[in-house]
Amino acid sequence: MSMAVNTIPGFYFTPTDEDLITFYLKPKAMRQPLPWDGILEKNLYGDNATPWVILTENDWEISRQTARAYEDSVSKDEMYVFTKLKKIGTVRFGRVAGSGKWNDNQPFKYIKNRQGEIIGIKKIFTFKVKGEKGHEKMDHMEKGHWIMHQYTLAGVSLVQEVKDSDYAICRIIRDLSKCRTNVAESSEGQSRLDIDLNN
Amino acid sequence: MSMAVNTIPGFYFTPTDEDLITFYLKPKAMRQPLPWDGILEKNLYGDNATPWVILTENDWEISRQTARAYEDSVSKDEMYVFTKLKKIGTVRFGRVAGSGKWNDNQPFKYIKNRQGEIIGIKKIFTFKVKGEKGHEKMDHMEKGHWIMHQYTLAGVSLVQEVKDSDYAICRIIRDLSKCRTNVAESSEGQSRLDIDLNN
To answer: Of B57, B99, B108, B149, which is least packed with CB atoms within 10 Å of its CB?
Structure first.
């Protein structure tokens, strides 16, 4: 299915926040069929869920077939993943993911539909490696910078027959430009070529 | 063809600069078939080419079927258009468009392919209505703010059999939020709802 889409140049999977909730997360939580089968399902949390272990190069390769390239960096990639949140007690969620933790460091945002009703919540996380400061930084630099935009259901999305409300859909962004072993950053030089052209 | 694409939610025509040059502008200039027929052809320049006259509400409606909505404003739309540049002499182009003029007010940018070769040039224009200052501003406010990203062939794109090198492909952005008659800006309030959520 993803192949058929990708045959038209310039078309990419660039869903809006509302698309992710309405067309993907909600049917997933309601155990209904999805309009496209290109979103992977992965356990992003737990003792073995270090992101660069569970998301393989093959996963990135598949995702690249429908994802729009980041124009500011050739070393940046994004991938969409369904995951189940791990509840700790009744209100908190476990954020441990293998060798580190997904830290939320920004305020969340309500996602609304066109009628202005709240349909979901978007939160942004950054992956931090466990351990002492020096080690943490080194490990980080080797695997790049990892960011996650997490979408969960809220508001009117929850009044219907939602069977798995702990599902989240995540946009995972891997930035290898902040990785010591990667030296490719060819697009960065481009903007420096900008000079004035008198028509 | 555009209809078939639009049946998969989350997929939009969000071409990169390179896509526009390689898959659309270059074949157009070489009189080769295009991979998708959804890009309109319009005369954006000349005495009758006021943008809100030549781009009809029906054109915007068609374009909305494949365009990704701007998440920062419900009053903003974009459309892709092929046009022919009007040469004045050998180096300059005419920028008059009906009741006004497309003004370029920013430095241009070279577009490169993955091999680092220059394949095109991107320039940004703003539409300015002719006439005295006060009138200009008023007219502007009534029709919204119009921006154009213009892509033309350059560098290695011109070494092949280009028959119509005066073709440009343009992304036209119409922002009606700066229009007095339009009061809908519902998405603007959304970001103010952001508050901290302790997981």
So the answer is: B57
Query: Which of A13, A186, A191 shows the shortest C-beta gap to B11?
Result: A13
Which token pair is B76?
A: 């903003």
The span from the CA of B43 to the CA of B97, in Å, is 9
Overall size of chain A counted in residues:
199
What per-residue confidence (pLDDT) applies to B72? 79
User: DSSP states of A76-130 as a string?
Assistant: EEEEEEEEE-EEETTTEEE-EETTEEEEE-S--EEEE-TTS-EEEEEEEEEEEE-
Q: Does the predicted interface ipTM exceed a cut of 0.95?
A: no
What region, left, alpha or beta, does residue A98 occupy, with left being phi > 0 and alpha being psi -120 to 50 degrees?
left
Residue A199 or B137, more confident? B137
Asked if A5 contacts B1 with a C-beta cutoff of 8 angstroms, the reply is no
Distance, in angstroms, between A52 CA and closest chain B CA?
24
Q: Which residue has the higher pLDDT, B138 or A111?
A: A111
Interface with B, mutate which of A3, A6, A11 (most B CBs under 10 A): A11
Of the candidate CATH numbers 3.10.180.10, 2.170.150.80, 2.40.128.50, 1.10.3720.10, the domain formed by B32-180 belongs to: 2.170.150.80
Q: Give the tens place of pLDDT for each residue, B51-97.
A: 999 999 999 999 999 999 988 788 899 999 999 998 888 777 888 89
**Cα B13 from Cα A153, distance rounded (Å):** 27
